[in-house]
Structure formats: structure tokens, C-alpha cells
Amino acid sequence: MAAEIIDGKAIAQTVLAKARAAASAFTPRAGRPPGLAVVLVGEDPASQVYVRNKSREAEAAGFRSEQHNLPVTTTEAELLALVARLNADPGIDGILVQLPLPRTIDTDRVLMAVDPAKDVDGFHPVNVGLLGSGATARALVPCTPAGSLILIESVLGPSLAGKQAVVVGRSNIVGKPIAQLLLQRDATVTIAHSKTADLAAVCRRADVLVAAVGRPEMIRGDWIRPGAVVVDVGINRIPAPERGEGRTRLVGDVATREAAEIARAITPVPGGVGPMTIALLMANTVTAAHLREG
Ligand code: GUN
């Protein structure tokens, strides 16, 4: 394999070290640690793992960490009441409502109820607008896109001037915000998606390719431009009968082994973007704490 394998775990550690140092400076000044509340509704096993990891990392970083596990039968009104309580709690700087929510709950209404100053996911329209208008210093930026950008920077440096960036996927959580971040770094950005004609040809133009479609190994080696930097945001669990009856394994949206023959650098799955998401959540919580305390 020719490509550099971008070590998301190691880069996440440097982000976490900075967040911990910032938390240590914040705590004596504010007379309290930064506080993060993570809310999970229902029992989706993948979400349970993510939420547990987020709470555990917050504790390790010295934060006040709260995890609220609500039953799948929780009503929208009950969830909104919890969000209101967390908004009003002066010791909580960050509120994260894990998605997806059960279909009985209006996700937009819940995300809009979170105080934008505590919106460490960056999903509130105020933060979406700040990001879109380029006011990133004041915005809370979604964690996965912010982490993906740091991985790209680790290879290419801060400026993407003259580079073609292709984002595959147009979700509010990843596709749209990473496109905004790449644009701010002066990349020429294309957002492709499931209805794009000749997706392979579009991908082949990419100096920077971000895959966030949620389809296991959809992006093949011959879709990669030689020398491209490939960031694979996908986390897909697929059957792995070779490991035994009923076993599974995690793969990304990119056929990593094939792509690594062609690319300059590529993120692995697991161990690429995943650890960055959690690290950026800690960084966003400290940022929110500093912004709130002034
Ligand atoms: N579900 C998948 N990714 C995310 C994320 O970044 N934040 C939240 N809240 N839910 C998610």
C-alpha cells in the first residue's frame, strides 16, 4: 500500500491534550469544571456505544459529565423539558442530543430548543448560519467535520487553495458543514450525492475526497485520483462470516485497501475520523465554557 495511513487516534490525542489543558485553565478561573450533558433516547446499540464513549472521555478530561438515558417511549414534550432544564443549568456548557431520535419526535424542534451557546454539536440554525457566513470564530462547528478538516490539514497544511475537494454526501451532520469548512480554506468544492450522475467521474476529480454516504465500501479504488487525500467518514457494520458465525466488522464508505494503492493519504476505519469526533466534542465543550464565562 502506497498511501500514508492518517492516524486519527494519535491526532485526536493532541486535540484532547489541548482541550484538557484549556479545561485545567478554565476550572480555577470559573470555580467549576466545564460541563457536558449527553442525552440518548432509546436503545440503539451503536448510539449507546457512542454516548458511553463521549461521557467517558468527558470524565477523563475532568469535566462535569452527565448522561441522560431516556426510554424509547419518551415524548417530545418530555425531551424538550429536559433540554430546557439543561439550558437553564449554569454548570452545563454543552448539550448533545444523540441522533437519530425516535420517529415520534420532531428532531428539528429538539435541535432548535438547545441554547445555541451550549450547542456543542453545532446543529442549531444559529451555529449553522455562523458557519455558513464564515464567522467560524464565533460558531460551534460540528465535531465530525471539524475533526475531518484537522486530518486533511495534517497532510496538506491549512490552505487548500487550488485544490478540488469533493464531498460525497449532503447530510446536515457531515456533508454540508465539511463543504463549508473546505470552502473557507479556499478549496473548490463539489457536493455530490446519491443522485449525482457518474459519481465515479466526479470523485476522480478530487484532490481531497470526503466520503460520508453511509454505504459500505461504495467508493472503489478506481474512483480515486492519484495522489488524493481521502477522508472516510463512514462507519458501517457488515457481516464477516470469515470471522465466524454471526460476526461483523466495521468498514467505511471507501474500499480502503484498493484506494490506498492510489491515494497519497487515507483515513482508516476504525481509527480515522471516529476518534476525532469525540476529541472535537471535548474541544467544543471547553470553547463553549470559555465563551459563556467570557
Ligand atoms: N449521530 C451520529 N453522529 C452524530 C453527531 O455528531 N452528533 C449527534 N448528536 N448525533 C450523532
TrEMBL record:
Matching PROSITE patterns: THF_DHG_CYH_1 (PS00766), THF_DHG_CYH_2 (PS00767)
Gene3D superfamilies tied to this protein: Leucine Dehydrogenase, chain A, domain 1, NAD(P)-binding Rossmann-like Domain
Catalytic activity, EC: 1.5.1.5, 3.5.4.9
NAD among keywords: no
One example of a Gene Ontology biological process annotation: methionine biosynthetic process
Protein source organism: Phreatobacter stygius
Transcription is among the record's keywords: no
InterPro entries referenced in this protein's UniProt entry, alphabetically: Aminoacid_DH-like_N_sf (IPR046346), NAD(P)-bd_dom_sf (IPR036291), THF_DH/CycHdrlase (IPR000672), THF_DH/CycHdrlase_cat_dom (IPR020630), THF_DH/CycHdrlase_CS (IPR020867), THF_DH/CycHdrlase_NAD-bd_dom (IPR020631)
Ligand binding (NADP(+)): G169, R170, S171, I235
GO molecular function: methenyltetrahydrofolate cyclohydrolase activity; methylenetetrahydrofolate dehydrogenase (NADP+) activity
Catalytic reaction list: (6R)-5,10-methenyltetrahydrofolate + H2O = (6R)-10-formyltetrahydrofolate + H(+); (6R)-5,10-methylene-5,6,7,8-tetrahydrofolate + NADP(+) = (6R)-5,10-methenyltetrahydrofolate + NADPH
Domain Tetrahydrofolate dehydrogenase/cyclohydrolase NAD(P)-binding: 142-290
Gene: folD
Recorded metabolic or biological pathway in which this protein acts: One-carbon metabolism; tetrahydrofolate interconversion
Function noted in UniProt: Catalyzes the oxidation of 5,10-methylenetetrahydrofolate to 5,10-methenyltetrahydrofolate and then the hydrolysis of 5,10-methenyltetrahydrofolate to 10-formyltetrahydrofolate.
A cellular component annotation (GO) from this entry: cytosol
Family: Belongs to the tetrahydrofolate dehydrogenase/cyclohydrolase family.
Subunit structure: Homodimer.
Keywords on record: Amino-acid biosynthesis, Histidine biosynthesis, Hydrolase, Methionine biosynthesis, Multifunctional enzyme, NADP, One-carbon metabolism, Oxidoreductase, Purine biosynthesis
Domain spans labelled Tetrahydrofolate dehydrogenase/cyclohydrolase catalytic: 6-121
Pfam families xref list: THF_DHG_CYH, THF_DHG_CYH_C
This protein's name: Bifunctional protein FolD
